[in-house]
Write a structure and sequence with these properties.
By secondary structure, the chain is of the alpha/beta class. 40% of the residues lie in helices and 12% in strands. Bound molecules: pyridoxal-5'-phosphate.
Length: 462
């Protein structure tokens, strides 16, 4: 990479294109109303720039499409399974790898075996499906991110770090109730913020003292490794694969969604060192997902993941990936839009509670902002706040720690001009922020309500 020029280009060119359908604002107002003001209920065709998630929405490479042609669909022991297994273990050398159709299946299997009533499972910040799968067993999901991680505007190089003292306190009191400690890299629900190697090491040391295993929720392991390379002393020259292997070396297992950093459209896995645990998990896998050499995936999916894993750790790709997210964040920050700082790896998070300070958390400022971004510019984002996390297991409702709106950037999918358009739309919405109104929920399911809840705008208070 010639470093004479400062523009960091997309390290690929376009080989196959997908059309985007342009819509009008009137059109979009109608569509979102019909969707009960829930962006999950929109038809994707009615969305112009889809930043709902970076999950499974990335563009596959020529080499991944080629690998798909090598997919072997044998029920048991397919060569595609062995290619997948090798690719996973090259980065995460755990003894047992259990393929699943996506990350939450790995979570459900693991927590059905090790969680349950009376158990507590700490994490820096639990992702929504992780929390839901833990709570579904009757256990408690506890967030122990450092204090800086809860302050959107506060700059810290590793805002995803776990509060090691808080973890030590918990384990000193009730280590017998803690079947596992989790660290999520990067910390998705906390702003896509990285966790330092030093922090992973420190958490490991505490886990060792109390003999509790440590697992990684490793969905964005490559982006986390790149942040370590950029920001942590001693890692600037290290190979990304080596950094990933070091992260894995402190853990006893992992859950994974291949729809994130592995650049695939579907897939996941659970990996563990413990033989007993692996056997129990495999038995559950066979019950609902599939045999242990495919776990609900087609052979071709296993191939795409295997190839994606090697592309995910390429320095040119990661440099572009992290910089393109930062490009969006920098532009919003310069214009005074409150965002979580510094930029996360896969997404930019607008601090809706601060931008829409006139809307109280229980009137869902994040929801109001997400709807406005869609109506104004056809951008689909997602609320990560009181709608997503405000409902407690006992049925009561309380404000979440933060009310954020996440704009996740699909991998290798949008160009810089798409992002320039997004910047223009966000600034237009921010300009008339004081006119936006809150929402109320008219219908919601008992769990993971953000996916299917229906909303109504509140009447103007003025
Ligand atoms: C996406 C994600 C999951 C769940 O994975 P799915 O493939 O969506 O089921 C778990 N943890 C984190 C941090 C994630 O980002």
């Amino acid at each position: 990479m010639p470093d004479r020029f400062k523009t960091i280009i997309e390290p690929f060119r376009i080989h196959s294109v997908e059309p985007l359908r342009l819509t009008t604002e009137d059109d979009r107002r109608e569509k979102i109303k019909a969707a009960g003001y829930n962006v999950f209920a929109l038809r994707a065709e009615d969305v112009l720039i889809d930043l709902l998630t970076d999950s499974g929405t990335g563009a596959m490479s020529r080499d991944q499409w080629a690998a798909i042609q090598h997919g072997d669909e044998s029920y048991a022991g397919s060569p595609s399974w062995f290619r997948f297994l090798e690719a996973v273990q090259r980065l995460f050398p755990f003894r047992h790898v259990i393929p699943t159709h996506q990350g939450r299946a790995a979570e459900r299997i693991l927590f059905s075996v090790i969680a349950g009533p009376g158990k507590v499972i700490p994490n820096n910040t639990h992702f929504d499906t992780t929390r839901a799968n833990i709570e579904a067993t009757g256990a408690e999901a506890l967030d122990l991110v450092i204090a800086e991680g809860r302050e959107p505007q506060r700059i810290h190089p590793f805002k995803g770090n776990m509060d090691v003292a808080a973890l030590e306190n918990l384990l000193a009191k009730q280590s017998a109730d803690v079947p596992v400690v989790f660290i999520t890299v990067t910390n998705n629900s906390g702003g896509g913020q990285p966790v330092s190697m030093e922090n992973i090491r420190a958490v490991r040391a505490v886990c060792d003292r109390y003999r509790v295993p440590l697992f990684l929720d490793a969905c964005r392991f490559a982006e986390n490794a790149w942040f370590i390379r950029l920001r942590e002393k001693g890692y600037a020259e290290r190979d990304v694969g080596d950094i990933v292997r070091e992260m894995a070396s402190y853990a006893d297992g992992m859950t994974m969604s291949a729809k994130k950093d592995p650049l695939a459209n579907i897939g996941g896995w659970l990996a563990v060192n413990d033989d007993d645990l692996a056997e129990k998990c495999r038995n559950l896998l066979i019950l609902t997902e599939g045999f242990s050499t495919y776990g609900g995936l087609a052979g071709r999916d296993l191939e795409a993941i295997a190839q994606g894993l090697s592309e995910a750790i390429e320095p040119d790709y990661l440099r572009y990936r992290i910089r393109s997210t930062e490009y969006l964040a920098d532009a919003l920050d310069r214009a005074g839009v409150p965002i979580v700082k510094p930029a996360g790896g896969h997404a930019v998070y607008i601090d809706a509670r601060s931008l829409l300070a006139h809307i109280p958390p229980l009137a869902y400022p994040g929801e109001a902002l997400a709807v406005a971004l869609y109506e104004t510019g056809g951008i689909r984002s997602v609320e990560i706040g009181t709608v997503m996390f405000g409902r407690r297991p006992d049925g009561s409702e309380a404000p979440a720690a933060m009310d954020l709106v996440r704009m996740a950037i699909p991998r290798r999918t949008y160009t810089q001009s798409h992002i320039d358009y997004v910047i223009e739309v966000v600034l237009a919405v921010a300009k008339r922020a004081s006119e936006l109104r809150g929402y109320r929920i008219v219908d919601e399911p008992p769990q993971l309500r953000h996916f299917t809840a229906r909303f109504e705008p509140l009447a103007a208070t003025r």
